[in-house]
Structure to design on (466 residues):
Protein backbone atom coordinates (compact mmCIF):
# COMPACT_ATOMS: atom_id res chain seq x y z
CA UNK A 1 0.00 0.00 0.00
CA UNK A 2 1.34 3.41 -0.97
CA UNK A 3 1.51 6.10 1.65
CA UNK A 4 0.68 9.78 1.41
CA UNK A 5 2.14 10.53 4.83
CA UNK A 6 3.56 14.04 4.97
CA UNK A 7 6.26 14.36 7.61
CA UNK A 8 6.63 18.12 7.62
CA UNK A 9 5.17 18.60 11.10
CA UNK A 10 6.76 18.09 14.48
CA UNK A 11 5.72 14.91 16.25
CA UNK A 12 4.93 14.79 19.96
CA UNK A 13 7.29 12.50 21.83
CA UNK A 14 6.41 8.84 21.42
CA UNK A 15 4.14 9.45 18.40
CA UNK A 16 4.59 8.22 14.82
CA UNK A 17 3.28 9.14 11.38
CA UNK A 18 1.19 6.49 9.61
CA UNK A 19 -1.90 6.00 7.47
CA UNK A 20 -5.35 4.60 8.22
CA UNK A 21 -4.76 1.50 6.11
CA UNK A 22 -1.88 0.44 8.37
CA UNK A 23 -4.23 0.24 11.35
CA UNK A 24 -7.82 -0.41 10.31
CA UNK A 25 -9.94 -2.62 8.09
CA UNK A 26 -13.33 -1.30 7.06
CA UNK A 27 -15.69 -4.29 6.97
CA UNK A 28 -18.89 -4.23 4.88
CA UNK A 29 -22.25 -4.07 6.61
CA UNK A 30 -24.98 -6.56 5.73
CA UNK A 31 -28.42 -5.74 4.37
CA UNK A 32 -31.70 -6.30 6.21
CA UNK A 33 -35.12 -6.42 4.59
CA UNK A 34 -37.73 -4.09 6.05
CA UNK A 35 -39.80 -7.12 7.09
CA UNK A 36 -36.99 -8.26 9.35
CA UNK A 37 -36.72 -4.91 11.10
CA UNK A 38 -38.51 -4.59 14.39
CA UNK A 39 -39.01 -1.21 16.02
CA UNK A 40 -39.35 -2.96 19.37
CA UNK A 41 -36.11 -4.90 18.88
CA UNK A 42 -33.25 -4.83 21.32
CA UNK A 43 -30.38 -4.05 18.95
CA UNK A 44 -29.94 -0.84 16.92
CA UNK A 45 -29.72 -1.04 13.13
CA UNK A 46 -27.28 1.47 11.65
CA UNK A 47 -27.49 3.10 8.25
CA UNK A 48 -24.99 5.53 6.81
CA UNK A 49 -26.33 8.43 8.88
CA UNK A 50 -26.95 6.68 12.19
CA UNK A 51 -29.70 4.52 13.69
CA UNK A 52 -32.48 3.63 11.23
CA UNK A 53 -34.38 1.08 13.35
CA UNK A 54 -34.03 -1.86 15.70
CA UNK A 55 -33.78 -5.64 15.34
CA UNK A 56 -34.07 -8.79 17.43
CA UNK A 57 -30.60 -9.94 16.36
CA UNK A 58 -27.21 -8.28 15.96
CA UNK A 59 -24.49 -8.62 13.34
CA UNK A 60 -21.48 -7.36 15.33
CA UNK A 61 -20.51 -6.96 18.96
CA UNK A 62 -19.98 -3.61 20.62
CA UNK A 63 -18.20 -1.32 20.85
CA UNK A 64 -18.17 -0.46 17.16
CA UNK A 65 -17.60 2.43 14.78
CA UNK A 66 -19.92 2.67 11.76
CA UNK A 67 -18.94 4.66 8.65
CA UNK A 68 -21.35 5.76 5.94
CA UNK A 69 -20.52 4.00 2.65
CA UNK A 70 -23.50 5.02 0.49
CA UNK A 71 -25.89 7.92 0.98
CA UNK A 72 -24.46 9.90 3.89
CA UNK A 73 -20.97 8.92 2.76
CA UNK A 74 -18.25 9.44 5.34
CA UNK A 75 -20.55 10.06 8.30
CA UNK A 76 -19.20 8.36 11.42
CA UNK A 77 -21.28 6.86 14.26
CA UNK A 78 -20.35 5.09 17.48
CA UNK A 79 -22.33 2.23 19.04
CA UNK A 80 -21.83 1.04 22.59
CA UNK A 81 -24.42 -1.72 22.00
CA UNK A 82 -24.30 -4.82 19.86
CA UNK A 83 -25.75 -3.69 16.55
CA UNK A 84 -26.47 -4.40 12.90
CA UNK A 85 -24.73 -2.15 10.33
CA UNK A 86 -26.59 -2.49 7.01
CA UNK A 87 -25.09 -2.67 3.54
CA UNK A 88 -24.79 1.10 3.11
CA UNK A 89 -22.08 1.13 5.76
CA UNK A 90 -18.62 -0.03 6.75
CA UNK A 91 -17.89 -0.99 10.33
CA UNK A 92 -14.91 -1.41 12.67
CA UNK A 93 -14.91 -3.46 15.88
CA UNK A 94 -12.86 -6.01 17.85
CA UNK A 95 -9.81 -3.74 18.04
CA UNK A 96 -7.03 -5.20 20.20
CA UNK A 97 -4.29 -2.57 20.08
CA UNK A 98 -6.29 0.64 19.65
CA UNK A 99 -8.76 2.57 21.77
CA UNK A 100 -11.97 2.43 19.70
CA UNK A 101 -13.26 5.77 21.03
CA UNK A 102 -9.96 7.27 19.89
CA UNK A 103 -10.54 5.70 16.44
CA UNK A 104 -14.09 7.11 16.34
CA UNK A 105 -12.94 10.66 17.05
CA UNK A 106 -9.99 10.28 14.69
CA UNK A 107 -12.28 9.36 11.79
CA UNK A 108 -14.61 12.25 12.72
CA UNK A 109 -11.67 14.63 12.56
CA UNK A 110 -10.65 13.43 9.09
CA UNK A 111 -14.03 14.50 7.59
CA UNK A 112 -14.36 11.46 5.37
CA UNK A 113 -17.40 12.93 3.57
CA UNK A 114 -15.08 15.19 1.58
CA UNK A 115 -13.72 12.09 -0.21
CA UNK A 116 -17.01 11.25 -1.92
CA UNK A 117 -16.26 10.72 -5.63
CA UNK A 118 -19.69 9.55 -6.81
CA UNK A 119 -21.71 11.45 -9.38
CA UNK A 120 -25.13 10.08 -8.41
CA UNK A 121 -25.53 8.53 -4.93
CA UNK A 122 -22.79 9.80 -2.57
CA UNK A 123 -20.28 7.03 -1.87
CA UNK A 124 -17.05 6.50 0.04
CA UNK A 125 -14.38 4.13 -1.28
CA UNK A 126 -12.59 2.62 1.70
CA UNK A 127 -9.29 2.57 -0.24
CA UNK A 128 -9.39 6.37 -0.29
CA UNK A 129 -9.81 6.40 3.48
CA UNK A 130 -6.95 3.93 3.90
CA UNK A 131 -4.51 6.41 2.31
CA UNK A 132 -5.26 9.23 4.78
CA UNK A 133 -2.30 10.12 7.00
CA UNK A 134 -2.32 11.11 10.65
CA UNK A 135 -0.20 11.09 13.81
CA UNK A 136 -0.56 7.97 15.93
CA UNK A 137 -0.02 8.33 19.71
CA UNK A 138 0.89 5.50 22.11
CA UNK A 139 -2.00 3.41 23.41
CA UNK A 140 -1.99 4.97 26.88
CA UNK A 141 -2.22 8.44 25.39
CA UNK A 142 -5.07 7.36 23.12
CA UNK A 143 -7.09 6.71 26.26
CA UNK A 144 -6.24 10.17 27.58
CA UNK A 145 -7.12 11.84 24.27
CA UNK A 146 -10.50 10.11 24.01
CA UNK A 147 -11.30 11.05 27.61
CA UNK A 148 -10.27 14.68 27.13
CA UNK A 149 -12.31 15.03 23.94
CA UNK A 150 -15.40 13.67 25.69
CA UNK A 151 -14.90 16.04 28.61
CA UNK A 152 -14.63 19.08 26.33
CA UNK A 153 -17.47 17.92 24.07
CA UNK A 154 -19.69 17.46 27.13
CA UNK A 155 -19.03 21.06 28.19
CA UNK A 156 -19.63 22.23 24.63
CA UNK A 157 -22.89 20.27 24.35
CA UNK A 158 -24.13 21.79 27.61
CA UNK A 159 -23.38 25.23 26.22
CA UNK A 160 -25.19 24.44 22.98
CA UNK A 161 -28.19 23.12 24.91
CA UNK A 162 -28.35 26.33 26.93
CA UNK A 163 -28.18 28.40 23.74
CA UNK A 164 -31.03 26.40 22.21
CA UNK A 165 -33.10 26.86 25.37
CA UNK A 166 -32.47 30.59 25.20
CA UNK A 167 -33.60 30.58 21.58
CA UNK A 168 -36.85 28.83 22.55
CA UNK A 169 -37.35 31.29 25.40
CA UNK A 170 -37.06 34.16 22.92
CA UNK A 171 -39.81 32.58 20.81
CA UNK A 172 -42.01 32.45 23.91
CA UNK A 173 -41.13 36.05 24.73
CA UNK A 174 -42.05 37.16 21.20
CA UNK A 175 -45.49 35.63 21.57
CA UNK A 176 -45.87 37.22 25.00
CA UNK A 177 -45.08 40.62 23.48
CA UNK A 178 -47.78 40.12 20.84
CA UNK A 179 -50.29 38.87 23.41
CA UNK A 180 -49.76 41.90 25.64
CA UNK A 181 -49.84 44.20 22.62
CA UNK A 182 -53.29 43.05 21.52
CA UNK A 183 -54.63 43.19 25.06
CA UNK A 184 -53.64 46.86 25.14
CA UNK A 185 -51.05 46.36 27.88
CA UNK A 186 -48.10 47.81 25.93
CA UNK A 187 -49.90 51.14 25.50
CA UNK A 188 -51.56 51.36 28.92
CA UNK A 189 -49.46 54.40 29.95
CA UNK A 190 -49.92 55.89 26.48
CA UNK A 191 -53.70 55.81 26.91
CA UNK A 192 -53.52 57.18 30.46
CA UNK A 193 -51.73 60.25 29.16
CA UNK A 194 -54.29 60.79 26.41
CA UNK A 195 -57.63 59.77 27.97
CA UNK A 196 -59.71 62.50 29.63
CA UNK A 197 -59.67 62.50 33.44
CA UNK A 198 -62.04 60.03 35.05
CA UNK A 199 -62.10 57.53 32.15
CA UNK A 200 -60.85 54.07 33.06
CA UNK A 201 -59.98 50.90 31.25
CA UNK A 202 -62.81 48.39 31.18
CA UNK A 203 -62.26 45.28 33.29
CA UNK A 204 -62.97 41.62 32.61
CA UNK A 205 -66.72 40.95 32.05
CA UNK A 206 -68.38 39.33 35.02
CA UNK A 207 -69.92 35.92 34.44
CA UNK A 208 -73.57 35.83 35.64
CA UNK A 209 -75.34 32.58 36.47
CA UNK A 210 -78.39 33.49 34.42
CA UNK A 211 -76.26 34.23 31.33
CA UNK A 212 -74.72 31.66 28.96
CA UNK A 213 -71.02 30.85 29.40
CA UNK A 214 -68.77 33.51 27.95
CA UNK A 215 -66.50 32.60 25.06
CA UNK A 216 -62.69 32.73 25.26
CA UNK A 217 -62.75 35.90 23.20
CA UNK A 218 -65.32 37.55 25.47
CA UNK A 219 -63.20 36.71 28.50
CA UNK A 220 -60.20 38.55 27.09
CA UNK A 221 -59.68 42.02 28.49
CA UNK A 222 -59.92 44.93 26.11
CA UNK A 223 -59.29 48.56 26.99
CA UNK A 224 -62.19 51.00 26.79
CA UNK A 225 -62.94 52.04 23.24
CA UNK A 226 -61.42 48.90 21.68
CA UNK A 227 -63.67 46.45 19.89
CA UNK A 228 -63.55 43.09 18.16
CA UNK A 229 -63.76 43.42 14.39
CA UNK A 230 -63.73 40.71 11.77
CA UNK A 231 -61.18 41.10 8.99
CA UNK A 232 -64.02 41.61 6.48
CA UNK A 233 -65.09 44.70 8.46
CA UNK A 234 -61.72 46.43 8.18
CA UNK A 235 -60.81 45.54 4.59
CA UNK A 236 -62.00 46.59 1.14
CA UNK A 237 -61.26 43.24 -0.51
CA UNK A 238 -60.08 39.77 0.49
CA UNK A 239 -59.24 36.97 -1.94
CA UNK A 240 -56.69 34.35 -2.89
CA UNK A 241 -54.45 33.75 -5.86
CA UNK A 242 -54.65 31.79 -9.08
CA UNK A 243 -56.15 28.29 -8.83
CA UNK A 244 -54.09 26.89 -11.63
CA UNK A 245 -50.76 27.29 -13.37
CA UNK A 246 -49.82 30.29 -15.49
CA UNK A 247 -47.60 30.06 -18.54
CA UNK A 248 -44.06 30.44 -17.27
CA UNK A 249 -41.35 32.36 -19.10
CA UNK A 250 -37.66 32.74 -18.27
CA UNK A 251 -37.84 36.13 -19.93
CA UNK A 252 -40.74 37.32 -17.79
CA UNK A 253 -40.47 40.24 -15.39
CA UNK A 254 -43.19 39.10 -12.98
CA UNK A 255 -42.81 36.40 -10.30
CA UNK A 256 -45.44 33.78 -9.52
CA UNK A 257 -45.43 33.60 -5.71
CA UNK A 258 -47.17 31.38 -3.17
CA UNK A 259 -47.33 31.04 0.59
CA UNK A 260 -43.73 29.81 0.79
CA UNK A 261 -42.56 33.14 -0.64
CA UNK A 262 -43.93 35.03 2.36
CA UNK A 263 -41.37 35.47 5.13
CA UNK A 264 -41.43 37.73 8.18
CA UNK A 265 -43.30 40.55 6.49
CA UNK A 266 -41.49 40.43 3.16
CA UNK A 267 -41.88 38.73 -0.20
CA UNK A 268 -38.94 36.38 -0.68
CA UNK A 269 -38.01 35.60 -4.30
CA UNK A 270 -36.18 32.25 -4.38
CA UNK A 271 -34.00 30.63 -7.02
CA UNK A 272 -36.82 28.31 -8.07
CA UNK A 273 -39.52 31.01 -8.14
CA UNK A 274 -41.11 30.93 -11.61
CA UNK A 275 -41.56 34.00 -13.79
CA UNK A 276 -44.30 35.09 -16.18
CA UNK A 277 -44.68 37.73 -18.88
CA UNK A 278 -46.67 40.93 -18.57
CA UNK A 279 -49.42 39.29 -20.64
CA UNK A 280 -49.87 36.57 -18.00
CA UNK A 281 -49.69 39.19 -15.29
CA UNK A 282 -52.52 41.15 -16.90
CA UNK A 283 -54.67 37.99 -16.99
CA UNK A 284 -54.30 37.14 -13.32
CA UNK A 285 -53.35 40.34 -11.51
CA UNK A 286 -55.13 41.25 -8.29
CA UNK A 287 -56.10 44.71 -6.97
CA UNK A 288 -53.03 45.09 -4.76
CA UNK A 289 -52.12 48.43 -3.21
CA UNK A 290 -50.02 50.01 -0.45
CA UNK A 291 -52.36 48.57 2.20
CA UNK A 292 -52.17 44.95 0.98
CA UNK A 293 -51.27 42.13 3.38
CA UNK A 294 -50.47 38.58 2.22
CA UNK A 295 -51.05 35.48 4.40
CA UNK A 296 -50.24 31.85 3.58
CA UNK A 297 -53.40 29.74 3.97
CA UNK A 298 -52.41 26.41 2.39
CA UNK A 299 -49.71 24.01 3.60
CA UNK A 300 -47.72 26.21 5.98
CA UNK A 301 -50.20 28.51 7.69
CA UNK A 302 -49.57 32.04 8.89
CA UNK A 303 -46.59 33.26 6.84
CA UNK A 304 -47.06 36.96 6.17
CA UNK A 305 -45.79 39.74 3.92
CA UNK A 306 -46.65 43.32 3.07
CA UNK A 307 -46.96 44.41 -0.55
CA UNK A 308 -44.47 47.06 -1.59
CA UNK A 309 -45.05 47.27 -5.32
CA UNK A 310 -43.22 44.06 -6.24
CA UNK A 311 -43.90 42.61 -9.69
CA UNK A 312 -45.81 39.51 -8.65
CA UNK A 313 -48.89 37.43 -9.31
CA UNK A 314 -50.35 35.31 -6.57
CA UNK A 315 -50.88 31.55 -6.32
CA UNK A 316 -53.72 29.87 -4.42
CA UNK A 317 -51.72 29.02 -1.30
CA UNK A 318 -51.76 32.68 -0.26
CA UNK A 319 -54.58 35.11 0.31
CA UNK A 320 -54.46 38.89 0.18
CA UNK A 321 -56.55 41.63 1.71
CA UNK A 322 -56.43 45.42 1.59
CA UNK A 323 -57.06 47.13 4.91
CA UNK A 324 -58.94 50.41 5.25
CA UNK A 325 -56.98 53.65 5.47
CA UNK A 326 -58.03 54.06 9.10
CA UNK A 327 -56.24 50.79 9.95
CA UNK A 328 -52.48 50.38 10.26
CA UNK A 329 -51.38 47.44 8.08
CA UNK A 330 -48.40 46.69 10.33
CA UNK A 331 -50.76 46.36 13.30
CA UNK A 332 -52.89 43.81 11.43
CA UNK A 333 -49.86 41.85 10.19
CA UNK A 334 -48.48 41.51 13.72
CA UNK A 335 -51.89 40.33 14.88
CA UNK A 336 -51.81 37.64 12.16
CA UNK A 337 -48.41 36.43 13.44
CA UNK A 338 -49.74 35.98 16.99
CA UNK A 339 -50.37 32.58 18.55
CA UNK A 340 -54.11 33.37 18.67
CA UNK A 341 -54.32 33.52 14.88
CA UNK A 342 -52.19 30.38 14.39
CA UNK A 343 -54.45 28.47 16.79
CA UNK A 344 -57.51 29.82 14.99
CA UNK A 345 -56.10 28.89 11.58
CA UNK A 346 -55.35 25.29 12.53
CA UNK A 347 -58.68 24.93 14.32
CA UNK A 348 -60.60 26.06 11.23
CA UNK A 349 -58.35 24.47 8.58
CA UNK A 350 -59.56 21.59 6.45
CA UNK A 351 -57.43 18.73 5.07
CA UNK A 352 -55.63 15.96 6.95
CA UNK A 353 -52.17 16.22 5.39
CA UNK A 354 -52.14 19.60 3.65
CA UNK A 355 -53.98 22.12 5.80
CA UNK A 356 -56.10 24.80 4.11
CA UNK A 357 -57.82 27.82 5.63
CA UNK A 358 -60.87 28.99 3.71
CA UNK A 359 -61.40 32.59 2.69
CA UNK A 360 -64.58 32.54 4.78
CA UNK A 361 -62.54 31.66 7.87
CA UNK A 362 -60.06 34.42 7.04
CA UNK A 363 -62.86 36.97 6.68
CA UNK A 364 -64.32 35.98 10.06
CA UNK A 365 -61.13 36.12 12.09
CA UNK A 366 -61.63 38.76 14.77
CA UNK A 367 -59.05 41.37 15.61
CA UNK A 368 -59.00 43.53 18.77
CA UNK A 369 -58.97 47.00 17.25
CA UNK A 370 -57.99 50.24 19.03
CA UNK A 371 -60.28 53.17 18.21
CA UNK A 372 -57.57 55.34 16.64
CA UNK A 373 -54.88 54.93 14.03
CA UNK A 374 -52.56 56.76 16.43
CA UNK A 375 -52.83 54.03 19.08
CA UNK A 376 -52.41 51.27 16.50
CA UNK A 377 -49.16 52.91 15.39
CA UNK A 378 -48.04 53.33 19.01
CA UNK A 379 -48.59 49.59 19.55
CA UNK A 380 -46.59 48.76 16.42
CA UNK A 381 -43.76 50.93 17.71
CA UNK A 382 -43.79 49.19 21.11
CA UNK A 383 -43.79 45.76 19.43
CA UNK A 384 -40.91 46.61 17.12
CA UNK A 385 -38.76 48.03 19.90
CA UNK A 386 -39.04 44.77 21.81
CA UNK A 387 -38.75 42.47 18.81
CA UNK A 388 -35.68 44.29 17.54
CA UNK A 389 -33.97 43.36 20.82
CA UNK A 390 -35.08 39.75 20.22
CA UNK A 391 -33.62 39.86 16.70
CA UNK A 392 -30.24 40.96 18.02
CA UNK A 393 -30.23 38.31 20.73
CA UNK A 394 -31.26 35.60 18.26
CA UNK A 395 -28.47 36.62 15.92
CA UNK A 396 -25.99 36.43 18.79
CA UNK A 397 -27.27 32.95 19.63
CA UNK A 398 -27.03 31.78 16.00
CA UNK A 399 -23.49 33.14 15.75
CA UNK A 400 -22.57 31.36 18.97
CA UNK A 401 -24.03 28.07 17.69
CA UNK A 402 -21.95 28.34 14.53
CA UNK A 403 -18.85 29.08 16.59
CA UNK A 404 -19.64 26.04 18.74
CA UNK A 405 -19.45 23.76 15.71
CA UNK A 406 -16.17 25.36 14.67
CA UNK A 407 -14.92 24.87 18.22
CA UNK A 408 -15.79 21.17 17.99
CA UNK A 409 -13.51 20.81 14.98
CA UNK A 410 -10.84 22.86 16.73
CA UNK A 411 -10.94 20.47 19.71
CA UNK A 412 -10.46 17.49 17.41
CA UNK A 413 -7.62 19.21 15.57
CA UNK A 414 -5.79 19.99 18.81
CA UNK A 415 -6.43 16.49 20.14
CA UNK A 416 -4.80 14.77 17.17
CA UNK A 417 -1.90 17.20 17.19
CA UNK A 418 -1.15 16.17 20.78
CA UNK A 419 -1.94 19.58 22.27
CA UNK A 420 -4.64 18.40 24.69
CA UNK A 421 -2.38 15.86 26.35
CA UNK A 422 0.89 17.79 26.47
CA UNK A 423 0.88 18.06 30.28
CA UNK A 424 0.02 14.37 30.62
CA UNK A 425 3.03 13.37 28.48
CA UNK A 426 5.36 15.45 30.63
CA UNK A 427 4.11 13.67 33.76
CA UNK A 428 4.18 10.15 32.28
CA UNK A 429 7.23 9.80 29.99
CA UNK A 430 7.50 6.08 30.82
CA UNK A 431 4.09 5.44 29.16
CA UNK A 432 5.02 6.91 25.78
CA UNK A 433 8.57 5.73 25.15
CA UNK A 434 10.41 2.46 24.52
CA UNK A 435 8.09 -0.53 24.34
CA UNK A 436 5.15 1.80 25.02
CA UNK A 437 5.84 4.10 22.06
CA UNK A 438 3.54 4.41 19.07
CA UNK A 439 6.28 2.99 16.85
CA UNK A 440 6.21 -0.31 18.80
CA UNK A 441 2.43 -0.21 18.82
CA UNK A 442 2.36 0.15 15.05
CA UNK A 443 4.62 -2.89 14.69
CA UNK A 444 2.22 -4.94 16.86
CA UNK A 445 -0.80 -3.81 14.84
CA UNK A 446 0.85 -4.69 11.53
CA UNK A 447 1.82 -8.13 12.87
CA UNK A 448 -1.73 -8.71 14.13
CA UNK A 449 -3.13 -7.71 10.73
CA UNK A 450 -0.89 -10.26 9.00
CA UNK A 451 -2.06 -12.98 11.40
CA UNK A 452 -5.70 -11.96 10.97
CA UNK A 453 -5.38 -12.07 7.18
CA UNK A 454 -3.88 -15.56 7.45
CA UNK A 455 -6.72 -16.76 9.67
CA UNK A 456 -9.27 -15.29 7.29
CA UNK A 457 -7.64 -17.00 4.30
CA UNK A 458 -7.55 -20.36 6.12
CA UNK A 459 -11.20 -20.01 7.12
CA UNK A 460 -12.10 -19.24 3.52
CA UNK A 461 -10.38 -22.44 2.33
CA UNK A 462 -12.22 -24.52 4.91
CA UNK A 463 -15.54 -23.00 3.84
CA UNK A 464 -14.84 -23.84 0.18
CA UNK A 465 -13.97 -27.48 1.04
CA UNK A 466 -17.24 -27.85 2.91
Amino acid sequence: MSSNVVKNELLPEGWVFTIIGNLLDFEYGKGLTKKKRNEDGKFPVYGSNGIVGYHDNFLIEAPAVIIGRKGAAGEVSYSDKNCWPIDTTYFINNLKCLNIKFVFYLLKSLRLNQYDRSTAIPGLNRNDAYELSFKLPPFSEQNQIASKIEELFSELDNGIENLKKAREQLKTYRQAVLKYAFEGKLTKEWRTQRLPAGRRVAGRPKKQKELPALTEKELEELPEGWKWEQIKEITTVLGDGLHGTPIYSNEGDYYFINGNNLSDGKIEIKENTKRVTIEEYEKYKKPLNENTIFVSINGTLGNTALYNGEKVILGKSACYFNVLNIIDKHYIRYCITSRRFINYAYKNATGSTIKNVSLKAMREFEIPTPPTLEEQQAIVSEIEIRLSVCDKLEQTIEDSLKKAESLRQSILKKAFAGELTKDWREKHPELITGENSAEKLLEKIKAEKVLAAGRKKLQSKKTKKK
